[in-house]
Recover the amino acids of this structure.
């Protein structure tokens, strides 16, 4: 199976939610959504963000929007004004997510338009 | 009267504290509009405003709003655009007085200006605690009494009905304090369509609409993954909701503006800060973000229909801020060759010199970042990523002791002459100790808050 960045089959938007971040992953096709629903688990995301997030990861699904929404519990260095880190709002966590390397079946890639 | 309209246009021209004034200005000029909503409050803003008000009883609101009305008033009057803004901060009457002075200056009489109050519970906090409200921290479960003496602001997020009430009374400008962001959009829809508290699907639809536009151009191409595909980023069109009585609405923007409204740009914003999509909780309704259908019905037009709502909870969310210690952050730029190795040495040198003088900081109290060498995406970069040509060294400390935090700042700039070569970028001078404003989210019984709406005429 080809190894591609998640950005090949999904888009993302992130922001702060208390002391953690909210990372929404938007599949670029129905086929990509079905694949991600199965393979982009909370465990996979937790491992990917190991150096950024120090808490748990929760996943929610919104089939109507082809969105998998992740809550990273402790990813902002304390959150709000208490944080010292550069990305205290988790604004870059969406793009961080899209750096994930995944084995994606060719059929899913064929059914998914390339990023514009 | 506007009652009985089939379609109402509501826009957002200010997504957050510090957003550009151009959004609101352009929305009043670039096309048709019925309502302009403006969000001026962030969590830390309320605390800053309380501080300003304690020094001067005429302050504590968003002064940007007054400057904006001064600029857009002629268009507002000409097109009969109504404005709803949470610019009141912790002193909505002072904000109203300043707006009245602007109306007078322009010779505009007979304009209704309403003030929505009741959100500010700072003065009643002890009385409320005496009635059994514990204000447990929603994240940590701790009781408020552990930080009670440090609390500097306390505001409930009010819903959309007081805004609708203000419009029912004939206001053209509605000034509120803390409320939900989507409520700024839902309020005018309740007023126009006569929705009741039991019209759950409609209230949920207005809430979803409000969520889509609450961060301004973030739904029209701003902060979009495929950024290269976004036309005319400089002139991104601000979002407009075309709402209908049954709850169906279309997201769009004025003709000729930059950016794009399609399924992808709208979905980006729907996913922003969404939490559990099946339970998006406001004081008015619980909106189900998994219920609706998004459809592209034309260029820059996305229709949303089928939104479902569940009955609201019996609590308000309360946002409190409290004094939580001190922090100081500073930075220097380190050029190559060997930028990263030299930046690492600089960091070591700073902590050693501070230690020599008796100041030690635990790992939890200090920050070391090598910006340019993979800070935002730590641990995610390919192994063959080349070493950066220069690095920004960011160091910081925090803690309860102001003097100890401030001491750190005086050991950063000396590195320019007393560290490895190629250290620069110290123009900001010594970093100062600034206050940390802690955030304390809690819930409280809705029935204990009384909202007030007062109408004034210019």
């Amino acid at each position: 199976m080809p190894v591609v960045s998640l950005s090949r089959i999904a888009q993302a938007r992130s922001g702060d939610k208390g002391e953690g971040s909210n990372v929404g992953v938007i599949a670029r096709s129905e086929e990509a959504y079905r694949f991600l629903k199965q393979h982009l688990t909370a465990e996979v995301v937790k491992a990917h963000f190991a150096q950024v997030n120090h808490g748990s990861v929760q996943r929610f699904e919104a089939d109507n929007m082809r969105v998998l929404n992740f809550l990273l519990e402790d990813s902002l260095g304390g959150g709000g004004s208490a944080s010292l880190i550069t990305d205290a709002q988790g604004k870059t966590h969406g793009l961080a997510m899209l750096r994930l390397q995944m084995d994606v079946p060719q059929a899913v890639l064929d059914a998914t338009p390339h990023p514009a | 009267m506007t009652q009985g309209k089939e379609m109402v246009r509501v826009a957002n021209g200010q997504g957050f504290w510090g957003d550009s004034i151009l959004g609101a200005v352009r929305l009043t000029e670039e096309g048709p509009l019925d309502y302009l909503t403006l969000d001026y409050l962030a969590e830390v803003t309320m605390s800053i405003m309380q501080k300003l008000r304690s020094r001067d009883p005429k302050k504590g609101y968003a002064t940007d709003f007054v400057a904006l009305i001064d600029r857009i008033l002629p268009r507002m009057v000409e097109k009969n655009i109504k404005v709803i803004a949470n610019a009141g901060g912790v002193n909505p009457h002072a904000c109203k007085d300043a707006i009245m002075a602007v109306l007078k200056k322009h010779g505009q009489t007979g304009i209704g200006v309403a003030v929505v109050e009741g959100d500010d519970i700072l003065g009643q906090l002890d009385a409320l605690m005496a009635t059994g409200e514990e204000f447990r921290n929603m994240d940590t479960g701790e009781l408020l009494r552990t930080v009670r003496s440090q609390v500097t602001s306390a505001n409930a997020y009010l819903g959309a009905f007081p805004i609708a009430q203000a419009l029912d009374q004939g206001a053209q400008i509605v000034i509120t304090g803390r409320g939900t962001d989507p409520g700024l959009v839902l309020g005018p829809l309740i007023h126009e369509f006569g929705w009741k508290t039991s019209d759950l699907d409609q209230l949920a639809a207005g809430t979803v609409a409000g969520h889509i536009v609450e961060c301004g151009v973030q739904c029209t191409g701003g902060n979009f993954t495929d950024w290269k595909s976004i036309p005319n980023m400089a002139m991104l069109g601000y979002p407009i909701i075309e709402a209908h009585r049954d709850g169906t609405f279309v997201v769009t923007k004025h003709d000729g503006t930059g950016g794009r409204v399609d399924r992808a740009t709208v979905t980006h914003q729907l996913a922003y800060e969404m939490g559990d999509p099946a339970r998006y909780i406001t004081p008015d309704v619980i909106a189900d973000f998994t219920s609706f259908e998004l459809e592209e019905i034309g260029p820059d037009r996305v229709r949303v229909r089928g939104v479902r709502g569940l009955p609201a909870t019996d609590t308000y969310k309360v946002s409190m801020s409290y004094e939580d210690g001190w922090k100081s952050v500073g930075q220097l730029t380190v050029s190559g060759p060997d930028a990263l190795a030299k930046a690492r040495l600089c960091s070591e040198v700073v902590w050693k010199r501070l230690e020599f003088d008796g100041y030690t900081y635990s790992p939890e109290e200090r920050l070391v970042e090598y910006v340019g060498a993979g800070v935002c995406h730590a641990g995610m970069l390919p192994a063959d990523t080349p070493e950066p040509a220069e690095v920004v060294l960011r160091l910081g400390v925090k803690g309860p002791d102001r003097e100890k935090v401030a001491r750190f700042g005086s050991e950063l700039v000396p590195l320019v002459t007393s560290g490895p070569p190629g250290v620069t970028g110290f123009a900001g001078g010594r970093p100062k100790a600034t206050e940390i404003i802690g955030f304390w989210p809690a819930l409280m019984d809705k029935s204990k808050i009384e909202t007030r709406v007062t109408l004034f005429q210019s």
User: Anything to note?
Assistant: Chain B has a mean pLDDT of 95. The first strand of chain B starts at residue 7 and ends at 14. Residues 7-119+157-313 of chain B form one domain. The CA atoms of residues 103 and 458 of chain B lie 7 Å apart.
